[in-house]
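Thread: "does anyone have the structure for this chain?"

Original post by V.I.:
We have the sequence but no experimental structure in hand. Need at least a predicted one for the grant figures.
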Amino acid sequence: MQIALTGRPGIGKTTACLKIFEKLKDEMKISGFVTKEVREKGRRIGFKLVNLESGEESWLAKVGEGKVKVGKYAVFVENLEKFLDEISLDSDLIIIDEVGPMELKSEKFVKFVENLLRKDNVIFTIHYKACHRILDEIRRRFKVITLTEENRNKAVEEVVEIVRGRKSQDSN
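Reply from O.Q.:
Generated one for you, tokens below.
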């Protein structure tokens, strides 16, 4: 089961990952992370990584100046790379939200994702339009579900059923 969720910014990819996590966390060991928007006075000021197992958070990017930039955001590559060391790879399900321009600034992240391509228990969210060899590989090899306002709740249920079906096959 290799699934990639995609869709325009703000469509609910992270929310979908959190819903999948909530529905399955009592049935299996889930690791990985989601990337949450951080808002101040209604304006997005950055993104934080949130470890699904521990709840630990770390800044991925914040509006401002920095060595590595994506648009108006300074990307904290060292935070991401340190964060990856805490992700358990021996889980029943691994959720990685997101494989996108900010994360792809890290060669360690690219290698991390390349290793996950060999596993069959992974859900990625992928940037809708970004171009990168690793995104091309995911789009080619994974079941890609494009979230829309009309299908996003149904898509969560579909993914949960796929994961449950795979887990029941593994236990037989």
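V.I.: this helps a lot. The chain is about 35% helix and 30% strand.
O.Q.: and The chain has a mean pLDDT of 94.
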